[in-house]
What we know:
Blueprint: H1 21-37, H2 43-65, H3 79-109, H4 114-121, H5 123-141, H6 144-162, H7 170-196, H8 204-233, H9 243-278
Amino acid sequence: xxxxxxxxxxxxxxxxxxxxxxxxxxxxxxxxxxxxxxxxxxxxxxxxxxxxxxxxxxxxxxxxxxxxxxxxxxxxxxxxxxxxxxxxxxxxxxxxxxxxxxxxxxxxxxxxxxxxxxxxxxxxxxxxxxxxxxxxxxxxxxxxxxxxxxxxxxxxxxxxxxxxxxxxxxxxxxxxxxxxxxxxxxxxxxxxxxxxxxxxxxxxxxxxxxxxxxxxxxxxxxxxxxxxxxxxxxxxxxxxxxxxxxxxxxxxxxxxxxxxxxxxxxxxxxxxxxxxxxx
Length: 279
């Protein structure tokens, strides 16, 4: 708030539009129903998902018919925009679940204490801090799509190592943390630029809003998916009571993450060499 006082008002958009309260509440309830629906295999979850899909259909029809919708659905016809958002979702899917899963692995499987496990997990975000400004400068000089794709390749290399999580030598865990940190540090700035420059200036607010939301969706999906996998391999018991089931769950979520990243890399290259060249 203090810094905002020094920003010139001329640089701000002063146009005021009515808030779509109905669309906002539908959006909130959809999110809640979706998260509840994918959290377990119980019968109640089916009804939550049914409610989500019904509300989603109502939301789409409603948003298309009002003058100032909470979100411009026409943006979803932009393939570059969609691919960039999907890439962002996958990045946060991976970033969130690796920290969550590896905290279990380091403490429950390797027997490290909280401090040691935390310091090891700190490797990735520290590298990201130094990598993000470099990525921002690179995206000013080179194609941000290519930088994002190459960053995803590094993340895929880290995940390929993590898929052998039950038999990894300790130094390979460090190598994977470093690769992931470099990859995620190089990814965010170019991808954000790529997404936001794929839409017109008047749609920047909607584009930025979905990009922020989709990152949170990636986190929710990763944790919910891991929860479902743990239910399959561990059941509803305490997770530390079945280390073998936990290791199987961790390996499977890493494989799923790797597949998503590979798909993401392919889509980014398609976006670069098909849609952009075609345009």
